[in-house]
Amino acid sequence: MKSVVAFIFLISFNLASAKIFLNCEFAKELGKNEAIERVYIPHWVCLAQGESQLNTSKLVNYPNQSSSYGIFQINSKEQCGKDKKGGFCNIKCSDLLDDDIKDDIKCAKVIFDRSGFNNWKSWQNRCKSTSTIDKNKALPNLVNCQYK
């Protein structure tokens, strides 16, 4: 019985610290950050949709022993530290799994400043368009979000 209660507590704790954003809600969070240029907010939303479906608690483990964390799927190989602060973001990877995305945005901006959006395959596949006619790579419509 105690193990069932402990299991339910752990599930409840995990659900309480995770969040799945809506597009406009996420755009507004990005808009609060002065480091994020407003013109790129639709790109950031598109990227996070592709990487995590806007889920702050998404964790993916890879065969090469690395993992990707959080809403932007920041990887432990070079970008964050698995057991302690590290990577070029100087952050503990597990800190990217909660619903406070300020640190996620800060790290994603560091990655962006190093290589633009090209670091994220989902942005390349879903969001980067070389043509205005490319319907498969449309950015989300955030016109009514008021994130400015």
Textual characterization of the structure:
- The chain is mainly alpha-helical and 148 residues long.
- The chain has one domain: Lysozyme, CATH 1.10.530.10.
- The chain contains five helices and three strands; from the N terminus they run H-H-H-E-E-E-H-H.
- A three-stranded antiparallel sheet has the order 1-2-3.
- Strand 2 and strand 3 (74-75) form a beta hairpin.
- Helix 2 crosses helix 3.
- The longest helix has 16 residues, at 2-17.
- Mean pLDDT is 88; it is low at 3-16.
- InterPro entries: Glyco_hydro_22, Glyco_hydro_22_CS, Glyco_hydro_22_lys, Lysozyme-like_dom_sf.
- Keywords: Antimicrobial, Bacteriolytic enzyme, Disulfide bond, Glycosidase, Hydrolase, Signal.
- Belongs to the glycosyl hydrolase 22 family.
CATH architecture: Orthogonal Bundle
General shape = globular
CATH C-level class is Mainly Alpha
Distance between the termini: 51 Å
Per the CATH scheme, the topology name is Lysozyme
Q: What is the alpha-carbon Rg in Å?
A: 16 Å
Mean pLDDT: 88
Low-confidence parts lasting 5 or more residues at pLDDT below 50? 3-16
Strand content: 5-15%
The arrangement of helices and strands along the chain is HHHEEEHH
Largest sheet: 3 strands, antiparallel
Structure classification: mainly alpha
Q: How many domains make up the coordinates?
A: 1
